[in-house]
């Protein structure tokens, strides 16, 4: 239907005839593979907030189309009132989730097209074509990142991944799971252990689903089993994604990533982060980044059933920060960055 379908699961698609954004509804996975059609920026914002679409690059591209939809739907008669509406949509979309930098990066890219156009029609056209370009770019970037990363994997490797940094977290193909796909395409036999990733279960629900969907060998394991699996020599490498990478190599990613990195260091297992350059934040310091706190019910309930006493206090941070000292290398579309990250990151951005 929507876009050329070359990469297996396509998480974000644009239906140009219907002027709608088509997203896989990830809340329903793995039991049902269903799509949601968004025709307004409010719908897109709801999908991001409720995690129907999630994963840093997927959130970014979805938000870009959200802003383009606001432009398509605008009835404004002059550029000033048009910009007023676009600014309101921009604010709504940017308030959906705080940690993944791709959201802000993508919205800024579309906003600059809106600001730079000298008529409403030109703004509409430029905003939509930028969003379409970002969708295509995401697939291309993931392919290139995957190719670079695949050189780090050996035939027979057993790779642990946390959360979902796959096709479902991007437009398609994935970052961490893109590395695994690329290694498989080169004929290497790779098996994957996906941690469940409490409380939203992106590992058990999403990583397991998409790897099975593509015929890649995958098992799931509780988050709490990582130390034992490593101590038993069952893991050769770890690859995770990132929601934000700072200039000095600190990596924000799904809660639990930091403890996996500590355990990898303790067991001398390489710990790789796969992240496109759109996930890098060259301005912020660790303390500037907001770590999203999510709903109480995610922790006290499993499949809507209460599993903790009423009135219990809960901590539910959605992300943590892994220091650069625990990271063996960061895989990007422009190559594999090694420590010291201050230098390798500066040089990849030509700073
Ligand atoms: O809360 P989520 O599911 O949006 O978190 C996703 C992650 O933490 C991913 O690892 C990250 O966004 C990288 S996706 C290529």
TrEMBL record:
**Superkingdom in the source lineage:** Archaea
In chain numbering, the residues marked as site (Transition state stabilizer) are: 163
Q: What is its EC number?
A: 5.3.1.23
The UniProt keywords, alphabetically, are: Amino-acid biosynthesis, Isomerase, Methionine biosynthesis
Q: Which residues form the active site?
A: 243
Which GO terms fall under biological process for this protein?
L-methionine salvage from methylthioadenosine
Give me the residues that bind substrate, please. Answer: 54-56, 97, 202, 253-254
Q: Which terms does the record give in the GO molecular function aspect?
A: S-methyl-5-thioribose-1-phosphate isomerase activity
Catalytic activity entry: 5-(methylsulfanyl)-alpha-D-ribose 1-phosphate = 5-(methylsulfanyl)-D-ribulose 1-phosphate
Keyword presence, Protein biosynthesis = no
Top-rank EC class of the record's enzyme: isomerase
Which SUPFAM superfamilies is this protein grouped with? NagB/RpiA/CoA transferase-like
According to its UniProt entry, the function of this protein is described as: Catalyzes the interconversion of methylthioribose-1-phosphate (MTR-1-P) into methylthioribulose-1-phosphate (MTRu-1-P).
Similarity comment: Belongs to the EIF-2B alpha/beta/delta subunits family. MtnA subfamily.
Entries under NCBIfam families matching the protein: eIF-2B_rel (TIGR00524), PRK05720.1 (NF004326), salvage_mtnA (TIGR00512)
Protein's UniProt name: Putative methylthioribose-1-phosphate isomerase
Q: Which organism is it from?
A: Candidatus Nitrosocaldus cavascurensis
């Amino acid at each position: 239907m929507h876009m050329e379908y070359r990469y297996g699961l396509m998480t974000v698609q644009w239906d140009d005839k219907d002027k709608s954004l088509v997203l896989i509804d990830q809340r329903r996975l793995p039991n049902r593979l269903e799509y949601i059609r968004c025709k307004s920026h409010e719908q897109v914002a709801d999908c991001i907030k409720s995690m129907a679409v999630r994963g840093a690059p997927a959130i970014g591209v979805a938000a870009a189309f959200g802003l383009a939809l606001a432009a398509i739907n605008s009835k404004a008669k002059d550029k000033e009132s048009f910009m007023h509406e676009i600014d309101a949509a921009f604010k709504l979309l940017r308030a959906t989730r705080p940690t993944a930098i791709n959201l802000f990066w993508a919205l800024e890219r579309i906003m600059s097209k809106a600001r730079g156009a000298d008529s409403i029609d030109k703004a509409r056209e430029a905003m939509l074509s930028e969003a379409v370009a970002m969708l295509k770019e995401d697939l291309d970037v993931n392919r290139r990142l995957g190719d670079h990363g695949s050189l780090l994997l050996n035939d027979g490797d057993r790779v642990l991944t946390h959360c979902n940094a796959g096709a479902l977290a991007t437009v398609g193909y994935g970052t961490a799971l893109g590395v695994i796909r690329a290694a498989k395409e080169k004929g290497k036999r790779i098996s994957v252990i996906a941690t469940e990733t409490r409380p939203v279960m992106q590992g058990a629900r999403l990583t397991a689903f998409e790897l099975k969907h593509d015929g890649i060998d995958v098992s799931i394991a509780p988050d709490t089993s990582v130390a034992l699996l490593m101590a038993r020599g069952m893991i050769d490498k770890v690859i995770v994604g990132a929601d934000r990478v700072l200039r000095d190599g600190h990596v924000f990613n799904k809660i639990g990533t930091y403890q996996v990195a500590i355990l990898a260091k303790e067991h001398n297992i390489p710990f790789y982060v796969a992240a496109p350059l759109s996930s890098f934040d060259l301005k912020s310091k660790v303390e500037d980044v907001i770590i999203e706190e999510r709903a109480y019910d995610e922790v006290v309930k499993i499949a809507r059933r209460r599993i903790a006493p009423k009135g219990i206090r809960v901590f539910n941070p959605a992300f943590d920060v892994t220091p650069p000292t625990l990271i063996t290398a960061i895989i990007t579309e422009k190559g594999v960055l090694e420590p010291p990250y201050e230098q390798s990151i500066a040089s990849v951005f030509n700073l």
